[in-house]
Amino acid sequence: MIKKGYEMKLNVQPVYIGLCHKYFFEGPCRMAPPEQLTPEFEKMVQPMMGNGALEGVKAHLANEPLINVMDLIYVERDDEMTTPEAMFDELMKNDADVDVYMILAAQMLRGDIIVELAERSKKPIVMTPEGCCMPARTMSHLHSHPGLEGYAPLYWDEAINLLHALRLRKVMHNSNLLQVVRMGEVAGSDITSNAFYNQREVTRKLGVRFRAVNLHEVLDQYKPGDPMANPTLPGREGLNPTDEEMKEIAKITEDLVNGATLCNMETDKVEKTVRLWYTIQKFLDKHDCNMFTAPCPQFCATRRANEEQVTFCLTHSMNNEIGIPSACEMDAIAALSEQLLISASGCAAYMGETNPFLYFEDGKPTPPMSPLTEEGLPADDWKEGGLENEPNLMFTFHAVPNRKMRGIDKPAANYSIQPFAFSGWGATIRNDFREDKGTPITMCRISPNCDKLFVAKGTVMGGAFKEIPNCKPMIIFQVKDNHDFYNKQLQVGEHIPLVYGDYTEILKKYGEICGLEVIEA
Amino acid sequence: MGMKEIASRIGEANKASAAVLEEFRALPEADQSDLASVLKRYIPGKLQLQGEEVSDNITIMVRTSISKATGISLEKLREMDRPGACGSAPAVLAKRVLLFLDIQKQLDITLPPEKLYDVQTIEDLTNLAFPLLEEKKVMA
Question: Which of chain B's residues have a Cβ under 8 Å away from the Cβ of A46?
Fold first, then answer.
C-alpha cells in the first residue's frame, strides 16, 4: 500500500482541564466577584470555557485541512488537588490515534497533570497560544524531564507552523523509500555522492525506513509476458504487466501524448517509458513504500537503458505528480527532502543539479555550462525575459519537470514530451517555467550525515532548454544572495529539490524539532 | 449615575423580571410556547435591555448589556473579552452563566452544564428547560 505523505493528517487531541472548587470561599489564589465563587457557577462555567476555547482553536485551524482537531476531552480537578487514575484514563482514551495533545487555556493547578500526561503518553504537548498567563511554568517543568516534548507558541501563526512541522515529522515516520540498486548505492558514499552516509542513523533521527530492490529484477519485470519466466527470478512470480494492465498503460500513454502541446517522440517509445512508471507503482505497493529513487550512471553503465530504450525520468515526473517523492541518480537525500516539500505544500516537487550563474566584471549573469552538445541548439535560450541583467540568478536542471507543480490537486500545467536520448527514446516531460515567472519557491536538502537541513527561498525567473534532449531543461530562479546560497549548499549537496510557494518557516521548525541544524539561504 | 441609583435600577429590574416568572408559575397548564414567551420578557428585563437591544440571541443580549454597563463598544468588547489572569471566566461567559444560574433557581430545575455552551437562543434555552419542568411535574 502506498500511503502518500501529502495526504497524511496530524491528529490533535484538544484537552481542557477544568478547576471546580468544592466550596465557596475567597482566598489568595481565588479571586472573583462572590457570585462567581460558588461551586454551582464553576460547574457550569468550566465546561463552557472548554468549549469556548475549542471553538477558538477550530476557528484558527479552519483553513488547515491536514490538521485534524479531534473531539474535546474535558476533565475536572477539584480543590482537593488529587490526581486520580481515572482522570488519565479519560485524558488518554484516544491515545492510539493521537499525535499531539493540545492543552486549551491551561491555568494554575493543572501543570502537574500536563507533565504527567506527557510522561505517560510520550506524545508532544502543545499549549494554545495567545492566552494567559502561565505556560512557562508548565513548559519549564516539562522540558526538565528528559525525553518529554512540549511547546507553547506565543502566536497562532507560530502554532500553525509548529503543527505542520509536527505533521511533517509524522509523515517522515510513516515514510519508506524504495531504492532500485545495482551496486553498493545505499551504503555510505556512492558513486554519484548523493547517498546518506548511514541510513540507519537517518531512520533513528527522522523515522524514515529504507527498502531496496534489484535493478535487473525490476527491468525484467517491466516487460509483459510470463511472470514466472523472468531471467533473474526463474520460477518465482514477478510483477510483469498483465494483458489488462497493458491496455491501461496504452490508455495512459495515449492521454499523455494527446495532452502535450508538442510530442517529439513516437508513441510506442513513450509507451515503454510509461510502462516502467506503471511497473514501479506495483513495486511501491508491494513494498509499502511512498518514495522512490533509482540509479542513473550505474543503470546507464549496464547498457540496459539503451537496450530497453527507457530511463527513469518519466517515472520520477509522474511519481511526483501524484505525491510520491521521486529522485534521480539514487539520491535518497533528495527523495526525503522532496517528501518534506511535497507534504508541506501539496505541490509536486522538481529536483536537479542546482548551481549559481557566475558574475564577472560586467555584473551580468553567465551560465557556467552550455547545452551546445549538438550544433544548432539555442545557447541563449535562458536570457529570454531580460534575465541577462538580473542579479543572483541560479538554475536547477534535470529532465524531471512535471505537470502538477502548481498543486497536485490543481489542473495540469502545459507540457511537451521530448526524448531523453538524441536517438529518440526515453520519454520526458518538459515544462515552460517562464509561465510561472514571479512564483515564490521553497528549497530544502538534508545533509549526507543527517545533521543539517538546508532551507532556502527564491523566485521563479524563467526556464530554458526545454526542447533539448538529455538532462538539460532547467528552471531559473533568483535568490537573495547566490554566492551565499552556493557556499551553504556545499554542506548539503548538489540536488536541491524545490516546490512552488513559501514553506520555509514550517521547514525550519521541522529541522528544529528534529534536532537538525538549520542552514538558511 | 450614582451607586445608589444603579442599585435601585437593578433592584427594580429584578422585581419586574421576578413578576414575569411569577405569572408563568401561576399558569395551571403552561406549555413550551408559554415558557418561550416568558423567557423573551424575563431575560431582556433582567439584563435591562429595551427596544432594538432585545434579540433572540442570549449571548448577543448579554454582550449588549455589558457594553451598556461598561461603556465599552461591542466591537472592542469582543476583542478584549478573554479569560482573566488566574483563569476566571471572560465577562460575557460569566454573565451568561449567572443568567442561567438565575433561571435555574427561579424555575427550580438543574440545567445540564455540558449542554449549555450550545444554548445560544431563547428557543435553545426553552427546548432545554421545558422537558426539565415537565419531568419535575411528573416527579411531584
Answer: 113
